[in-house]
Design goal:
The structure holds 2 protein chains of 2 kinds. Chain A is α/β, with parallel strands linked by helices. In chain A, about 40% of the residues lie in helices and about 15% in strands. Chain B is built from 12 helices and 15 strands. The relative contact order of chain B is 0.13. The chains are: A alpha/beta, B alpha/beta.
Chain lengths: ~260, ~350
């Protein structure tokens, strides 16, 4: 840890959130997981809930997220984080519970668990990171891979005739009465990052106010498995991902709307 | 408390409540659905958590979550449902959180049928999921024992931070007989959850519950620790019952409902002049191997009777190590072997050994 005295005429405006550990992450250079981790940590700090928050890591690139968040954490089986979160929250209703899941975890193997948890209106928050590919296993087609997108398991591009269409989870979950707040954001530029942070905060506030299930889908990049430079990946995502996955809220319940108005 | 006429599944469910069950997650499947139905009514009455999950996969992962939070938690199912839980069981075993699982076994493989079976012996005892682990496996022979073993299951699961599985067959789940329920234990308040539990890192370092160890040397250490714990369980928790074994020169070995049928077979064989005894394992894992090895020096032969194609018989043979002949008689498809079928097998054993 490097400690620097702040000169008397200066103000500390940026520091590591208390909700993050002082650890180098294993994420690839250019990966947006680090940004999303930081946003969650900032929100948890701001809401003053770190000491009563329990996080659940998925199977996927963020499987080791428990090393990076400075709070109680469990590591779930692939896709089962929403079931685990249900178990934790039901026996600890005064704690804050969140799952951090990728697209393979949430939109393929764990589809049943996330839909059923949302439908029950489970009082936890899901941060759903959609980068349109399986990162940890080395770049296979995800449920969210775009039509025509080349991956190691769709070498000629995703053929929607045989592989089906990319899953629009934010839209799918929005129709469930138990879901109080569902939104899709992107961390491709500072404005998007700022909006994502506000969405994550609202999602946790939805949980704290016991209004129902809350989910923030965060469009993300995987420059490594997309075989692109960092900037190129961000530009590709802005152009192609946002076109298929429109940004914005897909579900705002009356309770959440009231919450938004009081902010 | 006085004895009352109880149905097996309801008795198991009520015993769990009396043992301090805080939360139950489950999915309907015959012939154990009455466990779920009883808890659906009783747990909310007691102000505790009942949730019908969308699948057995979800059930076991809800159990995993609640166990990580330090709550006393249980699920129940029957054979095909337990197969769906095996992934979660493996995670729970590696994470070393306590959980109780009830399996009211039915005929298999596949969808099989809903008749009583012991076809899941291997699954429970040898391979409850991927990787190296054993749950503690308790096999009641009657409803009173089922009640007592459910209470014990919670205590053992918490003592060793492991899975305790109670395996009974559909007949035990569905039958009624007089039994006595234990007194109601107070539920442990959330403030008294164990120090390793995920309760929020207030004034302490974060707790992490994981089954991921990327470094082979670290995972080997974790496995060695798990194995040491299993050895401790094997040294301390073996349970069985013997009937007329003192002077026996032929021994029946059977568990659960079949053990009960074999008690009748022992009586009738004795009436015919055969000196037959019975050993009924109560813990299927750990297995009463040492006692069977002793008895192998006393008897001329053993007959293992099961409602499967011959599963526990392998453990009996491993225990006996060839010191006496070990024969097998089994019925499949959900059929309970009757004393009339077992007696001729004992007569043959008597002639041939």
């Amino acid at each position: 840890m490097v400690t620097v005295e702040i000169p008397a005429d200066m103000e500390l405006v940026y520091k590591r959130p208390q909700s993050l550990t002082e650890t180098h992450t294993h994420y690839c250079p250019g990966c947006t997981h680090g940004i999303i981790h930081r946003l969650i940590a900032e929100v948890i700090d701001e809401l003053g809930i770190r000491e009563r928050t329990i996080g659940i890591a998925p199977v996927g690139c963020s499987v080791l997220a428990y090393y990076y968040f400075n709070m109680d954490f469990a590591e779930a089986a692939h896709g089962r984080a929403p079931a685990m979160a249900t178990g934790i929250k039901r026996v600890s209703p005064d704690r804050v519970v969140f799952t951090y899941q990728g697209d393979g975890d949430l939109a393929a193997i764990g589809t049943a668990e996330i839909i059923q948890a949302a439908n029950r209106g489970e009082l936890f928050t899901t941060i759903f990171v959609n980068n349109a590919i399986y990162g940890m296993t080395g770049g296979q087609m995800a449920p969210t891979t775009l039509p025509g997108q080349v991956t190691t398991s769709s070498p000629t591009g995703r053929d929607v005739e045989t592989a089906g269409f990319p899953m629009k989870m934010a839209e799918l979950l929005a129709v469930l009465p138990g879901a109080a707040y569902v939104t899709r954001q992107a961390v491709f530029d500072p404005r998007g990052i700022h909006r994502t942070r506000a969405a994550i905060k609202l999602a946790f506030q939805t949980q704290l106010a016991e209004l129902g299930f809350s989910l923030v889908e965060v469009l993300s990049t995987c420059n490594t498995n997309w075989h692109m430079g960092v900037v190129e990946a961000l530009e590709w995502a802005k152009k192609h991902m946002v076109a298929y996955y429109p940004l914005g809220d897909t579900k705002v319940s009356d309770g959440v709307r009231a919450l938004m108005e009081t902010r | 408390m006085a004895k009352e006429l109880l149905e097996g599944n309801a008795a198991i469910a009520e015993a769990a409540i009396r043992a301090g069950l805080e939360a139950y997650f489950g999915y309907p499947i015959t012939p154990q659905t009455e466990v779920l139905e009883h808890l659906a009514r009783r747990l909310p009455e007691e102000g505790r958590v009942f949730l019908q999950a969308e699948s057995e996969v979800a059930s076991i992962n809800m159990v995993y979550g609640a166990a990580c939070a330090g709550a006393r938690v249980m699920t129940s199912s029957s054979s095909p449902g337990i197969s769906l839980m095996q992934e979660g069981l493996s995670y729970i075993a590696c994470s070393e959180v306590p959980a109780v699982v009830i399996n009211i076994m039915r005929g298999g493989p596949g969808l099989g049928n809903v008749a009583p079976s012991q076809g899941d012996y291997f699954q429970a005892v040898k391979m409850a999921g991927h990787g190296d682990f054993h749950p503690i496996v308790l096999a009641p022979g009657n409803i009173q024992e089922a009640i007592d073993l459910v209470v014990l299951a919670f205590d053992l699961a918490e003592k060793y931070r492991t899975i305790a599985m109670v395996v009974a067959d559909g007949s035990l789940g569905q039958m009624m007989e007089p039994a006595e329920l234990p007194p109601m234990r107070p539920v442990r308040p959330p403030a008294e959850r164990p120090p390793w539990a995920l309760t929020g890192a207030r004034g302490r370092q974060p707790n992490i519950i994981t089954s991921l160890y990327l470094e082979p040397e670290v995972l080997e250490e974790v496995n060695l620790r798990l194995q040491a714990k299993l050895q401790e369980i094997a040294a301390n928790e073996v349970r069985w019952k013997e009937y007329s074994s003192e002077d026996a020169d032929l021994l029946l070995v059977a568990f659960g409902t079949v053990g009960r049928v074999c008690q009748t077979a022992v009586r009738e064989a004795r009436r015919q002049g055969l000196k037959v005894g019975l050993l009924r394992p109560i813990t299927l894992w750990p297995f009463p191997s040492a006692r069977l090895a002793e008895l192998a020096g006393q008897v001329r032969g053993m007959l293992v009777v099961e409602m499967n194609a011959g599963q526990m018989v392998e453990d009996v043979r491993l225990a006996v190590e060839g010191r006496c002949p070990v024969r097998f008689y089994g019925r499949l498809g959900g059929i309970i072997p009757l004393p009339d079928e077992i007696l001729p097998e004992l007569e043959r054993l008597d002639k041939e050994c």
